[in-house]
Design goal:
The protein has 189 residues and is α+β, with helices and mostly antiparallel strands. The chain has two domains: 52 residues, Arc Repressor Mutant, subunit A; 115 residues, no CATH class. Helices cover 41% and strands 20% of the residues. It is built from eight helices and ten strands. A three-stranded antiparallel beta sheet has the order 3-5-4, with helices on both faces. A three-stranded mixed beta sheet has the order 6-7-8. A two-stranded antiparallel sheet has the order 1-2. β1 and β2 form a beta hairpin.
Length: 189
């Protein structure tokens, strides 16, 4: 609610949803909409009328937003829970590194996820806020964290060193951090 002059305005449920969904290119959780003041009944009416599309239990997409390259990743993160982040090979693709998107979406969650889903690989680890960023609406591990996770999870040293060089060449990883990552892998320059 806001006041202009002597008039009080209450934002519409649709504009409230837009505010909730904007940071993730139109995607949101039902719990986020309810917390922002949209009644569950209104959300159901929006779904029935085509304003929103339900993709999984409690996960919706506001149809006013255009499709994006990584919406399957955003949707998987929302499905997995509020602390889920894209990681490993999926994070490489979101950051524009490597050759291709892996066949499954890789997520890291800080707790035991009891759900299973075809096409989603769940890694369990604590990811501190400093290791998380957002790119194209996707909550994703930082480049440095992603490269470290790949090395720790058995990706070949040669491949990780090549990815470090690519990140350094693109200017998204400093020389100092690249050298530190190579050192962690036991690889020299």
């Amino acid at each position: 609610m806001f006041v202009i002059g002597m008039m009080t305005f209450v934002p519409s449920s649709r504009s409230v949803l837009f505010g909730v969904a904007e940071r993730r290119n139109g995607w949101f959780r039902a719990a986020e909409a309810v917390e922002a003041g949209v009644a569950r009944q209104q959300l159901a009416r929006f779904a029935a009328s085509g304003v929103v599309q339900r993709s999984a239990h409690g996960v919706y997409r506001l149809c006013d937003f255009p499709a994006t390259a990584f919406e399957d990743v955003i949707e998987a993160c929302l499905w997995a829970g509020p602390d889920a982040v894209a990681s490993h090979g999926t994070a490489l693709a979101v950051h524009g590194l490597g050759d291709a998107m892996p066949p499954a979406v890789h997520l890291t969650v800080p707790r035991r996820l009891r759900k299973h889903r075809s096409g989603v690989v769940v890694h369990r680890a604590d990811v501190p806020p400093r290791d998380v960023t957002a790119r194209e609406g996707v909550p994703v591990t930082t480049i440095e964290r992603t490269l470290g996770d790949l090395g720790a999870d058995g990706e070949s040293t040669e491949n990780v060193v090549s990815l470090i060089a690519q990140a350094e060449l693109l200017g998204v990883l400093s020389r100092r951090r690249a050298a530190a990552l190579r050192s962690q892998l036991g690889a020299g320059r």
